[in-house]
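Sat 14:20. Reprocessing the chain from the morning session after the first attempt stalled halfway. Input below, unchanged.
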Amino acid sequence: MAETKREIERKYDVGADATLPDLSGVAGVADVVDRGVVELDAVYWDTIDQRLAAGSVTLRRRTGGADEGWHLKLPVSLADGVRDEVRAPLSDTVPRALAGLVRSRVRGAELVPVVRLLTARTRCHLLDASGALLAEVSVDRVLAERLAGGAGTVDWTEAEVELADGGDPALLDKVEKKLKKAGVRRSASTSKLARALDGTEPREDTGRRARTETSVNGGKKAGKSEAVAAVVHEAVGEGPGCAGDHVLAYLRAQRDAIVSLDPAVRRELPDSVHQMRVATRRLRSAFKSYRKILDRTATDPVGDELKWLAGELGVARDQEVLNERLAARVGALPRTLVLGPVRGRLRVWDVARRTGALHRTVAVLESRRYLALLDAIDALLAEPPLRPAAVTPPEKALPKAALKDYARLATRIGHALELPPGHERDLALHAARKAAKRARYAGESAVPALGKPAKRFAKRMKAVQSVLGDHQDSVVAREALRALAIQAHLAGESAFTWGLLYGQEEAAGADRQRELPEAWAAADRRKVRAALGG
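Finished this time. Tokens:
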């Protein structure tokens, strides 16, 4: 069974004969206790093309020390030295639990030993006045040997300061101040593995998946496509870049979010499913918004698969949101209006709908279809299907895409408001909500290029989306409440409370419909066009 530890540490460059300054004078440190020397033998595993290292992820099998075993380190905030270390007992092969957590990066590639580190660690503990551990300070003398993907050895000495569990990160600043005065500086390397890979000789061709070339297809003739590709390639890194640069940067960010959130979803971290679903939707939405920049014959099939993934991720998330809404409604009622086992029935209903949800989600993330989707996204970004509009300035192409999404939203809202209240209007408002979300994402994706105008546009679209979203939530809640009322009635229980809650949700939906014209007026087309320069 794997366990997780939040690791907060800082690394420092020191000489081979380094002696750290006395840290007993650091504020809050009452005692410094020598813990002797421990010998550590760690073998780091990765793919031959170093897919884990590319994402600042490390997987090692270490013997020696109190925590020997398998350690998987996932970045949380590399700038602050924060990582989650997931541990598993010693075994000859990579533990299944850890292999699953790196699946989104490894895919079908084989994990092999790539680097061996032999470390002589001299340790001391910083204690407070009660004798509690504040931090461990160590000086590591390291010998690294490349095992795969290269050759050679390298050695160095470094110092580490690792905060104790639940410790105050401010202590690290105090210790660092003391070290700086002694001439000790923070290391530029984020991990021992990174330093070992940099210091040993790589092979000429490691088969890395990352590519720097861009290409254009879009169904154009080869000569014209090559000409556009050359212009795009030349524009990269010069000034603000072209529209294609900004769109591809946004797509890569969403791809990276999906890949990095995969292990968080498997570990059931709060909000991880929601955030992964959002990244999936943003990626698909960008394909649609930027059809003038990206050829849809290449992006549509990937977009269809992204829709499937978002739907699978939504099963557990939608139930979670719905249950929270209904539980809040019940909790706000006076006791005299809660007739029958309402809370118990709500709990049973929620558990029944959520049972197996995590297993289903993990099964999706382990599926060939999901891994093929990740490969398809990588392939598309490696050779992006750029159209000629990709070379236009971003201040021209991006507002045009956002305004097109705005026009689509305006049509849907106009249609919905023309309908009488009822089921058909509810469906039309739900369609408008999806259009508002797409317009909002288009604005957000344009912020790096357009700045405040795009940010204001996205904010206005979000306000409209919020009204439409709460209306849709009330529609879904009413459907659930009707089903719960029927269950209660058939069980011989009072359905009064469920009917009362249904009425509240019906009123909430009506309120959102009354608010919509005002929210939409705040997103007036003239204001939006003026803001975006359209």
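The chain has 17 helices and eleven strands.
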